[in-house]
Amino acid sequence: MINYKRILEIIENNNSFVITTHVNPDGDAIGSELALAYFLQKLNKDFKIINHSPTPENYTFLDEENLINIYDNSFDNYILNANVIIAVDFNTLGRTRSMMQILNQTKAYKIIIDHHRNPQNFVDEIFTDIDSPATAILIYELIKTYDSNLIDKKTADALYAAIMTDTGSFRFERITPNVHLIVADLISKGTNPTYIYNKIYNEMNLEKLKLLGISIANINLAMDGKIAYMVIDRNLLMKYVPEEEEFDVDGFVNYCLSLKTTIVGMLFFEIKNGVKVSLRSKEKFPVNLLAEKFGGGGHLNAAGIRLENANLKDVIPMVINQTIQDLEKYEREKQ
User: Fold this and answer.
1) Number of Cα atoms under 13 Å in the Cβ half of residue 118
2) How far apart are CA 217 and CA 202, in angstroms?
3) Could you tell me which of 134, 39, 117 has the C-alpha nearest to residue 126?
4) Nearest-angstrom CA–CA distance, 327 and 174
5) What 3-state DSSP class applies to 112?
6) Whole-angstrom Cα distance, residue 80 to residue 131?
7) Measured between alpha carbons, how far is 136 from 156 in angstroms, rounded to an integer?
8) Domains and CATH numbers, the chain
9) What does residue 151 show for φ and ψ, rounded to 5 degrees?
10) What tens digit of pLDDT does each residue of 225-261 get?
11) 17: nearest Cα among 96, 146, 39
């Protein structure tokens, strides 16, 4: 159980804060950061959200006040003089990329608010709940512990977007009655689920839709269809969305799970300096444990791997072979 009163004590006893999250932030990262920032704003605290990566286009609607900054060294002085650094939705310093050095240098008090396994000890206090389906639920409980009346519509929108995306639109494991009660409360605060869903998932441009179509048309199967995977190389990306970053394929991997036979879905994506692998699963197959074997991580049904200075030719068979071994073991243990 997270000690929310302790987090509130840290907030109340300090004045300046840096909120940051992981490289290539997803909906839970962006929504959690913004909800926490809106909370600090109401408490008249000084804060900055500073991230390594730009906000994915489909989440920018949540940041109407342009609170999220992209890191460069002009922020170093603020970071060095901040009272508190809050790491949201990640627990490994390496996931801050360009911010690693300055975060190591600052004497600010550092805390983690997160729901991932195996936190790295680079902070002063860790507040984590690996059973929570989204970090945003922890932010919700934090604000509610202080005063639930501070959850206004913009905060509810940020929290709802975060919870919806990190639960696969409420399809993944760990969805409890309490999750739906929280969502009901957010809707009562004014958030509109249809609007949020459409902004995130139904405003794709034509080029991205074509890329998705090509990716679906070229799905590969292994292990008699129990594994389905997509491959997007740089040539394919440059053909359809040359101006975009890797977050533009976020969500593609979920289509692999549409096949009746599939237990594990994968997307192998060639990034500028390596390969990113998105993993999804059905049942209770732990793709997080699979990801950890390659230095990645995540959750039971949703995880990822990032391999620097690697190529698709080597990574695809390596990950597929390991997945086959893990799936065979999983099926034996089910019997």
Assistant:
1) 10
2) 20
3) 117
4) 21
5) strand
6) 33
7) 10
8) 4-200 (3.90.1640.10), 206-334 (3.10.310.30)
9) -85, 95
10) 999 999 999 999 999 988 776 667 878 999 999 999 9
11) 39
Q: Which amino acid belongs to residue 327?
A: L
- For the entire predicted model, the pTM comes to 0.93
Q: How far apart are CA 295 and CA 169, in angstroms?
A: 27
Q: Are 59 and 197 in contact (CB under 8 A)?
A: no
H or E segment to which residue 156 belongs: helix 153-166
Strand partners for 125: 111
Report the first-to-last Cα separation within the chain, whole angstroms: 34
Q: Are strands 46-51 and 274-281 parallel, antiparallel or unpaired?
A: unpaired
What does the block give as tokens for 299?
């959750």
Cβ partners under 8 Å of residue 16, min gap 6: 45, 46, 47, 78, 81, 82, 83, 84
pLDDT tens digits for 198-228?
A: 999 999 889 999 999 999 999 999 999 999 9
